[in-house]
Amino acid sequence: MKENRKAWAFLAPSFLGVIFFVLIPFSDAIKRSFKEAMGGKFVGMDNYMNVLHNEAFRIAAQNTSRFIIICVPILLLLSLVLAVMINNLKKHRSFFKTSFLIPLAIPVSSVVFLWKVVFHQNGLLNGALSVIGLEGYDWMSTKAFPVLVFSYIWKNIGYDMVLWLAGLDGISQTMYEAAAVDGANAWKKFWYITLPGLLPTVFIVTVLSILNSFKVFREAYLIAGAYPRDNNIYMLQHLFNNWFTKLDIQKMSAAAVMLALIIVAIILILQRIDTKVDRKLDIE
Amino acid sequence: MKKKISIIMSCLLLLLTLSGCSNGGKGDKEKENITVEDKITIGRYVEETIDFPKEVDPDDYISLTVTPYGIIELYTYNNFGFYEKYVYTDKEWTKENADELQVFNRTNTMRITDVFYGEDGRQYLLGNSTGYKNAFYRLSDQGEYEKVEIKKFEEKYTDLDMFYRPVIIKVLKNGMIAASYLRGEIEVYSSDGQSVEAELTSSYDAKITVEENNLYYTSQNNDELLTINMETKEEGTPRAIEIDLSNIGILEYDSTTAYFCDTSGIHLNKEGSSLWETIVDGNQSSLNMPSLTLSKFIVGAEDDFYCVYQDTNKAVIKYLYYDENLSTIPSVELSIFSLTDSKTIRQAIAMFRESHPDVFVNYRVAKQDQGKYYTYGIEDPEQTVTDTDYIKTLNTELLSSKGADILVLDGLPIDSYIEKGVLEDMGSIFTPMLENGELIENIADNYIDDGKVYAMPVRFKFPIIYGNAEAVNFAGSIKELADYTKSNQEIPLLYESNYRALAAWFLLIYYDQILNDKNVIDEGMLQDFLEAMNIIASNIGASDDAVLDHLGKSTGYVEYGYWVSAVGDVHKKLIQSNIGLMNGIADFAIPLVAASQWKGTYNAMNQTFAASALIGINSAGQQKELAKKFIQLLYSEEVQSLALEDGFPLNTKAMDGWIQKDQSIGMVLGFEDGYEVRADYPTSSLRKKIYEKICSLSKPMMNDTTMLNMILDEAERYLRGDITAEQAAKNAVSSISTYISE
């Protein structure tokens, strides 16, 4: 009982924060999603139907899904490779760990400025390409999607790597030693010990990576504004932002509720898979 | 033990924190005695108009001054050219003998422009003699005026064809004279007019004043109030100025208090204090009324003030006194939100305040710093907060039903606001006005939708093309203009321009020429449009960053109506024509002279007009009835007849007045190379022709900046040669379709 009280005392501040800054505003969004923008007249599911039939919503939802589907696996894979490599380092481990975390500390506006210098039509990348006789692109206008994918991976790879490293630390060294005695090579060690050992970490890294992928809007917005020339980087957040400017709060609320439901569904599916895999591993 | 101490300390901390929030010892009984009245802050300055004596025409005003004994004196001249003097006591004017002044009557070559008393108690006169040369006189003990010979008055500015004229002239107790001139020059003279070495400099408009033998003046950056005793040459401690003195205003000093009066209000600073207190808000007095220019500020004996303003061609006297029984802020508030400032709205606010003294009109202008004007499509690179940010803030207020009562819709998502029911139908105001023929029909009709009126422009501007008649006659469409340009390559059609600004102008003017039958932007038509524009751009030598100074980053001339260099080039016949946005009749003067060099003409372009200050009422506003009264005043002849350089009036009677009224105004436009274009205010027949053009206007300029910028982005890339016209049109239409589908 006493332990419970302590736990509640520690949880209370952040729980209150979540209530006031997330749950109450979100419940307001749910309420607004069933009403007219102004005046508060109840309109049932009209706003949801409007959103689902909205061409811009479809484009934005497609782009956002495409971005997540492409980015999250690449990020998980690359960060895992990096984590394993750094974990195997005997020297300078913390130096590399810190180096990969630096992008997280750079403000978004500075990152965008950096990308503009690199990817501008007269930027460094096109300059380098012209030196080797290749023709450059207007990257920011026509190839903005790959630039955005690169930007997301560059920024988040260090964070995911740290999460993987925490998972790697949880795998007992004795298992590797036993496998080595049995004559297992590096690949077999990775496949039969590291990978199963990391499965509990996969869930949390995937969820956090998906959530982080929504934050890429800041970069997209600063690179290309409210209406990107390259329609491929027109994300859901662009649409929400533009809807708010036009006072389309009802559409925004309906879309936000749908998005929240989809995210919760994804998390629940991942959790279910995680639980199943855990059980399977326990049985084995 | 440690745990107990920490608990005690925590309790103590909590107790101290809470006690800090108490009322400083008032007992419960005392708290109960606090009434509602006690909670309202009491006392504010009230403004009254002081009417001129009945027989005096305010046009004939010369000076208002205060004698060393605190008596207010008014100097005027009558129809026969004689000077008159009145004294103001008990709210009445009494005529007094002014025989001594008659030596300067109209038969004399000198005309009095100012009368005032020096700190030495003597009366002084400043006047203009032949050739606008200044003269300075002192009233002697014998009751005669003696001329004080100041050499500087005989000199001309090295770079200007005009004699030195003091911005301010004051006399110290010891008889020394201090005068400030434009560009911050301050000179001090002995009582006989001999220059005294002082080496003082102030800000550009050189704000100075005197008290006893002390000369007070603002530093070059307007950030310090400096003082020097001209008797002992001792310099006083500089006093920091924490208010913005960049506006033209008047500095006064009385006893131990410095006063500064400008459009933002009356501010004071007491000796020994670093704080500047605003005691009169410019918005709550006539100080911020655009039609009035402050010409005199007098500090009265009882913490009261007299302000003299110059209206179009007459003087207005206002008296400000402190009423300790009125609440500091009026109990009723009418709020107005606008992205940019509007002079006509400010004017109406000042006039509304006079008839509604108990209403506080809160005029919120989001983009306060309007020092630089940018032409359409060019964004201010120094702008840190975007229009979208302001709109989002406003939207948050609207969603919580806290938005302003009146919305100035320029730059706001009007269609969306109408669709969401944010705007109130103003049919009850405008339908009767339209039925009575009180509004210019061809303009107002564009804002009536199914009998409902959600937005209405306060004023309007319209673009004209002037110069070579052939070019002007081909300006019906961009295609015709491009065809004409193709076959007339010798002289450029227009002044060289920046790609984006050029594209913006053409798009705004010819926007309807890219719309198909369904009123939607057509890709093919946009491509043709861009290609035609490219022909003109090549002809005029447009480039990426050309002449932003003249076209984009203007110093006010874009708003004034024509591009300075361009009008000169039309006059010199270096270019065939120029496009200008006309704000008023006076704007036509110089362009018409420039066109006459070509034996040319002018024409309104594509019957397009630009709305200036689109007004709407917030349907969730708290003061809807008051808002309607304000709007009625805004569109009344009284407000609309004033020419404030922000567009033509929508009120028909006001427009008739503009067309009928003759004005003897001469205008000179000078250039760095000494070239000058001189013009007179348009004649009656020209004004009638202008009115005919106004009657032909029927197409409101596109006001969707998001869509405009989408097309401009692509047009700019095409004109620069980065992409083809086809690609540009395709990209623009693709972006626009996403935008529309949102």
UniProtKB/TrEMBL annotation, chain A:
Annotated Gene Ontology cellular component terms: plasma membrane
Membrane-traversing stretches: 7-26, 67-86, 98-117, 190-211, 252-270
SUPFAM superfamilies assigned to the protein according to its UniProt record, in alphabetical order: MetI-like (SSF161098)
The keyword DNA damage is assigned to this record: no
Protein name: Sugar ABC transporter permease
Membrane topology: Multi-pass membrane protein
Record InterPro entries: MetI-like (IPR000515), MetI-like_sf (IPR035906), UgpAE/MalFG_permease (IPR050809)
Family affiliation: Belongs to the binding-protein-dependent transport system permease family.
Annotated source species: Mobilitalea sibirica
From TrEMBL, chain B:
Domain of life (superkingdom): Bacteria
Pfam families: SBP_bac_1
Keywords: Signal
Record-annotated membrane-spanning stretches: none
Gene source species: Mobilitalea sibirica
SUPFAM superfamilies, per database record: Periplasmic binding protein-like II (SSF53850)
Name of this chain's protein: Carbohydrate ABC transporter substrate-binding protein
InterPro entries (alphabetical): SBP
Gene3D superfamilies with a match to the protein in the record: Periplasmic binding protein-like II
Signal peptide residues on this chain, from the entry's feature table: 1-24
